[in-house]
Amino acid sequence: MKNIVIFLGIVLVIYVVYRIYKYQTLDNGLDQLIKNGAVILDVRTEKEYETGHIAGSQNISLGTIRERYVELDPDKTYITVCSHGLRSVKVENILKEKGFRKVYNGGAWSDLQKSFNLKVSEK
């Protein structure tokens, strides 16, 4: 009987740790951030953005973010996206250096759009 209780205790601990991990993992939290009004910040160039983007997203390219970050509200939540996910990581780090606390990398804009069935716009 003691072994069964220990085994069930271990299973419970593993389950709780898994749920906490799942909750804190970005991929599983992006949908909630979007539902709560996070701003999708597309960091591709204007020309790339014009070829297609997530409806309602804001476009500030990696090349201009150091000057234009003042256009953003540090109290809002931002999800950075680009074409493959590399520039969005850089912008995430730049914004965090500038004091933004709620910035998350969303990776490729098209993957984010498909994953959460978001609308696509063209200029």
Record keyword descriptors for this entry.
two-stranded antiparallel ribbon, 123 residues, alpha/beta, 50% helix, single chain
The helical percent reads 40-55%
Adjacency order of strands in the biggest sheet: 3-1-4-5
Helices and strands, in order, run as HHEHEEHEHEHE
What is the name of the CATH class of the domain at 37-121? Alpha Beta
DSSP helix count?
A: 6
Major sheet: 4 strands, parallel
Model regions low in confidence, pLDDT < 50 over at least 5 residues: 21-25
CATH superfamily of the domain at 37-121: Rhodanese-like domain
CATH topology of the domain at 37-121: Oxidized Rhodanese, domain 1
- Strand runs, count: 6
Give the CA-based shape. elongated
Give the overall average pLDDT. 88
GO molecular function: transferase activity
InterPro entries: GlpE_sulfurtransferase, Rhodanese-like_dom, Rhodanese-like_dom_sf
Keywords: Transferase
Protein name: Rhodanese-related sulfurtransferase
Can you characterise this structure?
This protein has a domain of 85 residues: 3-Layer(aba) Sandwich (Oxidized Rhodanese, domain 1), CATH 3.40.250. Helices cover 50% and strands 17% of the residues. The protein contains six helices and six strands. A four-stranded parallel sheet has the order 3-1-4-5, with helices on both faces. Strands 2-6 form a two-stranded antiparallel sheet. The longest helix is centred in the N-terminal third of the chain and has 23 residues.
